[in-house]
Amino acid sequence: MSPLELNLILLGPPGAGKGTQAERLREDFPLAYVATGDMLREARNQGTELGLKAQEFMDRGDLVPDEVVIGIALERIQADDARDGFLLDGFPRTVPQADALDAAMADLGRRITAVLLVDVADEEIVRRISGRRVSKAGRTYHVDYDPPKHAGRCDVDGTQLVQREDDKPDVVLARLRKYHEATSPLIDYYERQGLLRRFDGSRSPVEVHDHIRATLATLRLEDEL
Ligand code: ADP
Ligand code: ADP
User: Which residue(s) pair with 59 in the sheet?
Assistant: First the structure.
């Protein structure tokens, strides 16, 4: 493995700003972006068997079963464009998913560089998710925090912005509950492995990005020594 290979995981509650930070990090580093939520939504839009299977879980704010998600995520990190580094967003979300990732990385002779926890309190999560709007291509805005130049239209391709079905209030609460129950144990899991790095996600997107970049620069320096 190249010593400078960056294999990163973005961890945090729904709406913490993981996708927003991923967009910025991909401008800094040539990382394959692996977002299981995006992959599942794409499969659903195309009406594939995987998409149909995932839909009912996503619509009620539940997690898609481990055996379904593990398969697509592990296949993706072994694709050619991910061989020199990846940025996982939204995976792993359960301890069995993290175990499967660890086992696969060991088999591949690769290792996780760092797990970036972007943490935000629940009340702010609800504000963020309820104002989130997305374009068909998956670009993210916020009605107050990051509005498009023309209301309701994507700055990049002009398409209409919509609210995700699972961003509606009752589903958001179900997703948050699921996060605390099934995903937050991964904080300890990666802390024990010495991989966890914490970031205050309540800061502005620019500040969070600056902190992450500074941390990654230090990690790379340590790796070179
Ligand atoms: P968020 O913006 O909340 O981080 P995502 O786009 O990552 O949401 O995920 C949307 C939905 O897709 C989740 O609520 C869940 O139903 C499903 N999903 C995505 N990734 C996973 C995963 N690793 N395990 C199980 N379900 C997942
Ligand atoms: P996640 O991928 O973790 O679900 P997103 O990156 O989609 O989260 O962000 C959720 C919403 O909050 C979006 O509408 C986004 O524009 C907004 N947002 C992201 N980061 C911040 C931040 N640091 N401060 C305020 N709003 C933010």
Answer: none
Instruction: List the structure tokens of 27.
Output: 């401008």
* Given the residues 41, 76, 128, 175, the one annotated as active site: 175
pTM (whole model) above 0.85: yes
Q: Show the domains of the chain with their CATH numbers.
A: 6-120+179-224 (3.40.50.300)
Q: Provide the 3-class DSSP secondary structure of residue 4.
A: coil
Q: Can you tell me the distance from the alpha carbon of 25 to that of 27, in angstroms, rounded to the nearest whole number?
A: 5
pLDDT digits (tens, 9 = 90+) for 126-148: 999 999 999 988 899 999 999 99
Question: In terms of Cα–Cα distance, which of 35, 86, 25, 87 is closest to 211?
Answer: 25
Please tell me the distance from the alpha carbon of residue 201 to that of residue 21, in angstroms, as a whole number. 10
Which residues have C-beta atoms less than 6 Å from ligand 1?
14-15, 18, 36-37, 40, 57-58, 61-64, 69, 90-91, 93, 97, 166, 175
Helix, coil or strand: residue 34? strand
How many CA atoms within 13 Å lie on the side-chain side of 77?
A: 30
Indicate the pLDDT class of residue 56, thresholds 50, 70 and 90.
very high
d(CA 132, CA 221): 36
In tens, the pLDDT along 93-116 reads: 999 999 999 999 999 999 999 999
